[in-house]
């Protein structure tokens, strides 16, 4: 797993807003570590000093030491509770910040990124990949500090008790460390593979549920069951692989190495006692401290495993964050943005060419077209000719391969994206409505719109009457993608949304092709109200739509040319 300085710096930057809380958590960790080291010394004091001395104050000293131990345990408990609660809260806040930053960045990526990536995989990266990072943010620094300080402290104390016995114990440690390094090399790989399998499972699930109507229409539930079962089985096998490696490591540490070291210490300590080089109380305390040597090694290995698991998710987080987002404007040009805000709506395509990838052929080749303010132009041609692609270049969903598109005489690449896109309205065949109410979906066209403006837009879109017949009128929940509405109703809400946006340029991309004649007539009535004094780019195979255009252009493999309604009528 590649963790560069830049990635570490980025990760550490998420601690910045919580540095005070982080400092207090580490302070609590230090207190907890010191107390855990002090408690065995209290036991040694009672068994080795108080009881052996036979002092008249023996009982008093025992109870006083026990009282001190009780107070230390209370302090340790309070520190532990604070660390667990506030530390986890800090980790959750950092996870929240990362998720918000990733979501904001995803929204600013080019459309072609979403053309390539599966929605389920992206959902997994935004949600699952960051889950373990919460534990890393909290437990990572805290546990590492506790384990290292405990390890060093125990080592110093053991040396003061008996140097020879300490050397016997530490003779086992190189084997322990080598085993840890070996196993965690394997764990790093299986953690990464497991992340990918989770993402693939989510992608399969999202794909099936999103297309559930298609699944049911073909009665292919069993086929989808089999596909999901395979993906789920692959995920299960991945988890099983992780658990197998973890079991071999942690079980070996707990049930083999630790007891082996204790047995070695007992044998060596017993030998030293027979030679009067060690006392029994010292051996008892020594055995207590052995866990302070082995446990930190296991703990540090767990921390590194946690970092490996968490950073495999953070690496995937950075993979997306490293993708360049849309260039809002090539250079700061307030004059251009101010001019674009005047919204006359003149569009001009100058020698425009476009292809989806370096290795692919041009979809559009050397197209020139001018649409004056308030003029309607229709694009016709066979499916796949590039009509929708040409329209997608206007709001810069894709970047030109060559040529220029001018908006009111300004290259669109010199206009702020928000300014450009606020000037363009798109009504497509595939209407997307968000899960929520009718009023929320119409207001999406202008988030600052008043209720009166929304009602007016609904009336202009011929949507008001059917909305008032819904169970809760404008407050009716319409379901994901507007599933509780008919196709014509969804289209009218999308048009109301455009009315509310009120852009000078309108793109109609097969807006009525999926509707019946009655709904098409209603939609056309709505659109006709909107076309006046607007620049309109029409894409349609229907003559009823094409005839609204002042000019008609044909796009095909043979090229781009102006045609007429009569020519298209004869062709159709």
State the name of the first-level CATH class of the largest domain: Mainly Alpha
Broad shape: elongated
Strand content: 5-15%
Number of helices: 21
The largest β sheet comes out as: 6 strands, mixed
The CATH topology annotation of the largest domain reads as ABC transporter transmembrane region fold
Low-confidence stretches: none
Short description:
The chain contains 21 helices and ten strands.
Structure description:
This protein is an alpha/beta fold and 572 residues long. The protein has two domains: 5-321, Up-down Bundle (ABC transporter transmembrane region fold), CATH 1.20.1560; 334-571, P-loop containing nucleotide triphosphate hydrolases (Rossmann fold), CATH 3.40.50. 65% of the residues lie in helices and 10% in strands. It has helices at 5-13, 19-53, 58-107, 111-116, 119-126, 128-161, 163-170, 173-210, 212-217, 221-274, 280-321, 334-340, 387-393, 417-422, 438-443, 451-460, 464-468, 487-501, 517-531, 543-546, 565-571; strands spanning 347-354, 364-371, 376-380, 402-407, 410-411, 424-428, 505-509, 535-539, 551-556, 559-563. The strands form two sheets. It has a six-stranded mixed beta sheet, with helices on both faces. Strands 2-1-4-5 form a four-stranded antiparallel beta sheet, covered by helices on one side.
């Amino acid at each position: 797993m590649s963790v560069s300085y830049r990635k570490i710096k980025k990760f550490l930057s998420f601690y910045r807003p919580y540095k005070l809380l982080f400092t207090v958590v580490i302070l609590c960790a230090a207190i907890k570590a010191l107390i855990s080291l002090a408690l065995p010394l209290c036991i040694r004091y009672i068994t080795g000093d108080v009881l052996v001395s036979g002092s008249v104050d023996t009982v008093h000293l025992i109870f006083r030491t026990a009282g001190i131990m009780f107070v230390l345990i209370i302090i340790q408990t309070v520190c532990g509770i604070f660390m667990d609660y506030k530390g986890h809260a800090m980790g959750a806040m950092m996870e929240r910040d990362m998720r918000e930053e990733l979501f904001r960045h995803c929204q600013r990526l080019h459309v072609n990124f979403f053309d390539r990536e599966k929605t389920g995989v992206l959902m997994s990266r935004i949600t699952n990949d960051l889950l373990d990072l919460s534990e890393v943010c909290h437990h990572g620094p805290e546990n590492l500090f506790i384990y290292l300080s405990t390890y060093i402290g125990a080592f110093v104390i053991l040396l003061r008790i008996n140097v020879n016995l300490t050397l016997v114990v530490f003779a086992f440690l190189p084997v322990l460390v080598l085993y840890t390094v070996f196993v965690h090399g394997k764990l790093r790989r299986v953690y990464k593979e497991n992340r990918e399998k989770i993402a693939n499972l989510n992608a399969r699930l999202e794909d099936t549920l999103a297309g559930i109507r298609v699944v049911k229409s073909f009665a292919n539930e069993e086929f989808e069951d089999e596909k999901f079962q395979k993906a789920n089985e692959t995920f299960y096998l991945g988890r099983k692989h992780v658990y197998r490696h973890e079991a071999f490591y942690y079980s070996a540490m707990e049930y083999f190495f630790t007891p082996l070291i204790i047995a070695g210490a007992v044998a060596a300590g017993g030998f030293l006692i027979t030679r009067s080089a060690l006392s029994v109380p010292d051996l008892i305390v020594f055995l207590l401290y052995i866990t302070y040597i082995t446990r930190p090694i296991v703990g540090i290995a767990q921390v590194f495993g946690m970092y490996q698991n968490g950073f495999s998710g953070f690496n995937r987080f950075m993979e997306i964050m490293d993708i360049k987002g849309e260039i809002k404007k090539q250079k700061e040009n307030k004059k251009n943005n101010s001019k674009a805000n005047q919204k006359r709506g003149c569009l001009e395509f100058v020698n425009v060419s476009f292809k989806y990838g370096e290795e692919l052929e041009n979809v559009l080749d050397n197209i020139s077209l001018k649409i004056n303010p308030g003029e309607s132009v229709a694009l016709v041609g066979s499916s796949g000719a590039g009509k929708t692609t040409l329209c997608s270049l206007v709001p810069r969903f894709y970047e030109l391969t060559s040529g220029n598109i001018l908006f009111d005489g300004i290259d669109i690449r010199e206009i702020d994206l928000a300014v450009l896109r606020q000037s363009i309205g798109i009504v497509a065949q595939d209407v997307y409505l968000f899960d929520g109410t009718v009023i929320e979906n119409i207001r999406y066209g202008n988030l600052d719109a008043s209720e009166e403006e929304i009602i007016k837009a609904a009336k202009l879109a011929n949507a008001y009457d059917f909305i008032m017949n819904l169970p809760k009128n404008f407050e009716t929940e319409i379901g994901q993608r507007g599933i509780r509405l008919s196709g014509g109703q969804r289209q009218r809400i999308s048009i109301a949304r455009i009315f509310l946006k009120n852009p000078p340029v309108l793109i109609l991309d097969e807006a009525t092709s999926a509707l019946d004649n009655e709904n098409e007539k209603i939609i056309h009535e709505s659109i006709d109200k909107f076309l006046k004094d607007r620049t309109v780019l029409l894409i349609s195979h229907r003559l009823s739509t094409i005839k609204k255009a002042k000019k008609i252009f044909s796009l095909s493999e043979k090229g781009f040319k102006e045609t007429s309604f009569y020519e298209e009528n004869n062709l159709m």
